[in-house]
């Protein structure tokens, strides 16, 4: 066998031996490329901020309810609890007027607050229910010989939060006649706020005191509670 022929066969034999290793390296490279991890794109999930109307509800009266040293004016059953308004009898037999009270199912006081307004003629609660959850907003309308604003409480289970006082009521500019607040009030809310809108064409600010009549820009003029404070927005 000539040297040239021997070298040719040797080269072919060597090429055949190296071919699997070369293919294996290429396959590994391909596999490594396919195995590269691509992190998923981070998508921010925004909370729904659409305002949904609260439903004004009528609660059943709690008849026969009694509280020691307390003169009950109104009493309602709210789920397993009781919402009561009235006057507290003090040790000297005088009254502390206009109390808002929440009792639990065993008729123990969970929350109580007096607005101390020198015996209001009217201290009447109205109830608004969120359609998102079981949150209840109570607006206690007030009046002497004239209609006034309302005290706002938020009830979530056994927790009561006093939101503040709406020092306003609805009025019609043509007649300048003020309406009882809960007759003209509409509530809407979301996870961030509760808004209080008036259905009248005007709003009387500081009724019985300042008596400032302002135009009601429907959908904009309102009281708003952001779960921290209750403010008027023009």
What's the pLDDT, averaged over the residues? 84
Strand content: 35-45%
Structural class: mainly beta
Amino- and carboxy-terminal Cα gap = 108 Å
The spatial strand order of the largest sheet comes to 1-13-14-17-18
| Total strand segments | 18
Shape call: globular
Order of helices and strands: HEEEEEEEEEEEEEEEEEE
In DSSP terms (H or I, runs of 4 or more residues), the helix count works out at: 1
Q: What is the percent of helical residues?
A: 10-25%
Largest sheet: 5 strands, antiparallel
User: Which segments are poorly predicted (pLDDT under 50) over 5 or more consecutive residues?
Assistant: 8-40
Gyration radius, rounded? 36 Å
Name a few traits of the molecule.
single chain, 234 residues, mainly beta, five-stranded antiparallel β-sheet
Description of the molecule:
It is a single chain. The protein has 234 residues and is mainly β. It is 14% helix and 45% strand. It has one helix at 3-34, and strands at residues 52-53, 55-57, 70-78, 81-89, 95-103, 109-114, 122-129, 136-143, 147-156, 159-166, 168-172, 177-178, 185-189, 194-198, 202-205, 212-215, 222-225, 230-233. The strands form four sheets. Strands 1-13-14-17-18 form a five-stranded antiparallel β-sheet, with no helix packed on it. The protein has a five-stranded antiparallel β-sheet with strand order 2-7-8-9-10, with no helix packed on it. A hairpin with a 3-residue loop joins strand 8 and strand 9 (147-156). The longest helix is centred in the N-terminal third of the chain and has 32 residues, at 3-34. The N and C termini lie far apart (108 Å). The model is unreliable at 8-40 (pLDDT under 50).
